[in-house]
Structures are given as C-alpha cells and as structure tokens.
Amino acid sequence: LDYNENIVWEPLPIFGYAETLCIFWFTLEYVIRFIVAPNRFQFFCTIMNIVDLTAIIPFYLEIGLSLCGVDVESLSDIKGALLVIRILRVLRVVRILKLGRYSSGMKTFALTLRSSARQLGMMGMVLTTGVVFFSTLLYYVEKDENDSPFTSIPAAFWWAIVTMTTVGYGDYVPVTSTGKLIASGAIISGVLVLALPITIIVDNFMKISNKYVLQLLC
C-alpha cells in the first residue's frame, strides 16, 4: 500500500467516551477520598495521591483551554506550546499507575523494591563505575582507528551500558583486538554485577510474597 500524506487518522469516538467516563470516575473517587481524609495536607503529599492527581489534571486542562477559546490542536504548530501539549498527553499514561492501588502484585513489587533499595543502590554504583571504567579504556584503545565509532568517552557510555547489561544491540562494536578483549571483560563484569544483587532481590520478593499470603489466610 502507498502512503498518502493527505489521510488524516481519527480515533474512534468510543475511546473518547471511555476516557471521559474513566476520568469522571477517577475524579469522583479522588474527591471522596480527599473529603474523608483525616489529614488533608498529608493526603496531598502521598505519592499515590500525587499520581492520581497527575492522571486527571491533563484532561481538565485541555477542557479549560477549549472553554477559553484555545484550540488545543492548533497549539501544536507553536514550538513551545507543542512541548506543553505533548507533556499533557504523555501524562495520561500515569493513569496506569492507579492500578497499583488495587493490584496485590504491584504492591508486592513496590515493597520488594523498597526493601531492596540498598542492593539496588549498590548495583547502580558498581554498574556506573564499570561503565565509566570500560568506556574510558575502550576510547583510548580505539580513538586512533579511522572506522571506530567511539569518538569520545561519553560516546562510549551507550556501548558500555548495553554491553554490561548483556543486551548487546551491536550498533557500536570495537574494531581492534584489544578493544574486543575489553568488551569481553565488560560482558563478564556485567553478568557478575547484575547476578549478585538480583538473587537478594528475588529472595526479598519471596519473603514479602509469603508474608502477604499469610496475612490473607489470617
């Protein structure tokens, strides 16, 4: 099929109706919880309540702009306004985080991350050190090669992150034998750095999950 630039794709109206219904339901829920909250200032400062508010604000901002006679679609032609509109639309994705309030699995996952903050911090620190170390080594080994993609140490950060996390896109690769040896060291180091904390995180997840099951049984 040939691509036609004159075709304008419009979303089905049913999705707009569903979004409006969900927003009204979220708003009603938020207002009721705010009214019955014993400490309203603390209510506003709670992370999940901030997420809830962020999820519904863009909808009402767009309605407010429309009531003021501002065409939201026409703002897309203005460079600064385009960024604002895009941010408002991206913030709609925050609504999916509301599921964490009602999902036991997401609650368990969040508690696991909280209890494993020390291990995650250690992993991040060691991984950052490894990225800087291997990026620097590879740059000084490959900088004099004509076909080397590593033009600076920061340019090698992407390669080091992809390599140490064992993703391996292959978009940037060393061209010298010494560079390949450094890449091998980065791969092995990445496996060790990621494997050790992950076992602790999995253990914390099992403990929290079992504790949650016991609470349900009791």
Spatial gap, N to C terminus: 61 Å
CATH topology of the largest domain: Helix Hairpins
What is the average per-residue confidence, as pLDDT, rounded to a whole number? 79
Q: Characterize the overall form.
A: flat
Q: Uncertain segments of ≥5 residues (pLDDT<50)?
A: none
Counting structural domains, the number is: 2
What share of residues is helical?
over 70%
* Beta strand count: 0
How do the SSEs run, as a string of H and E?
HHHHHHHH
Architecture of the largest domain in CATH? Orthogonal Bundle
Number of helices: 8
Q: Structural class of the secondary structure composition?
A: mainly alpha
The percentage of residues in β strands lies in under 5%
Name of the CATH first level of the largest domain: Mainly Alpha
CA-based gyration radius: 25 Å
Largest sheet: none
Architecture overview:
- By secondary structure, this protein is an all-alpha fold.
- The chain folds into 2 domains: about 15-100, Voltage-gated potassium channels. Chain C (Four Helix Bundle (Hemerythrin (Met), subunit A)), CATH 1.20.120.350; about 105-215, Helix Hairpins, CATH 1.10.287.
- The mean pLDDT is about 80.
- Helix 5 crosses helix 8 and helix 6 crosses helix 7.
- It has 8 helices and no strands.
- Helices cover about 70% and strands about 0% of the residues.
- The termini are far apart.
Topology of helices and strands:
Layout: H1 13-36, H2 40-45, H3 47-67, H4 79-90, H5 104-115, H6 117-142, H7 153-164, H8 177-217
Helix pairs in contact: 1-3, 5-8, 6-7, 6-8
